[in-house]
Write a structure and sequence with these properties.
This protein is an alpha+beta fold. The protein contains 5 helices and 13 strands. It folds into 2 domains: about 40 residues, no CATH class; about 140 residues, tt1808, chain A, CATH 3.90.1570.
Length: about 190
């Protein structure tokens, strides 16, 4: 059987999307009938994503919170969107979508590593979809071009934004009662220029 033909210009139902994406070698995100192919990342993107997962895992080792990498998608029901975060954490019992083992419904914290090609998408569109998830407490944006982390919090209706810049900074994730030095997130990352 050949690769399924997903067309970014066609409208899909959530069920069609899930079926076709399961048969595809590529990852696709879904929003209100439209699909978007997930592009490959850079070396820095891959290293930072892995570092974030490791740092979250180490920091939450003895807590009732589970970190995940980019292989699971989340379903933002209020936005009718299936999205792939670069990393995420679920605190408490994990809620999977009924009949599925690849869709989480209740992330506490979501991490996106910013790429030049997806920066606007992550800053605006994904953020708008993610923040409609009742369980989500923090949305974390990590730059791959400079040591910079932005943490958006659900406090005050998503009005609280904290920015950490420089390798001497320590990012605070209030929803997890966790602090992570930026040196851990940027370990083995080479900045250009």
């Amino acid at each position: 059987m050949g690769e399924p033909k997903l067309d970014a210009h066609q409208k899909y139902t959530p069920e069609e999307y899930l079926t076709l994406e399961a048969e595809s070698q590529e990852k696709w995100e879904f929003f209100d009938g439209q699909i978007t192919a997930m592009s490959g990342g850079t070396r820095n993107h891959a290293v930072i994503s892995l570092n974030a997962g490791i740092a979250l895992g180490n920091g939450l080792r003895d807590r009732d919170c589970t970190p995940f990498g980019s292989e699971l998608k989340v379903y933002a029901e209020a936005a009718n969107a299936y999205l792939y975060p670069d990393a995420m954490v679920v605190c408490g019992a994990e809620q999977l979508q009924a009949g599925r083992n690849d869709v989480l419904m209740n992330p506490t914290l979501i991490v996106e590593v910013l790429s030049p090609s997806t920066m606007q998408y992550d800053f605006v569109k994904k953020y708008d979809r993610y923040k409609r998830m009742p369980s989500l407490r923090e949305y974390v944006l990590i730059s791959q071009d400079q040591p910079r982390v932005e943490v958006r919090s659900s406090v005050d209706d998503w009005g609280q934004i904290r920015t950490y810049e420089g390798l001497d900074s320590v990012a605070i994730f209030s929803s997890l009662s966790l602090q992570i030095p930026l040196t851990e997130l940027y370990r083995r990352v080479t900045f250009e220029g």
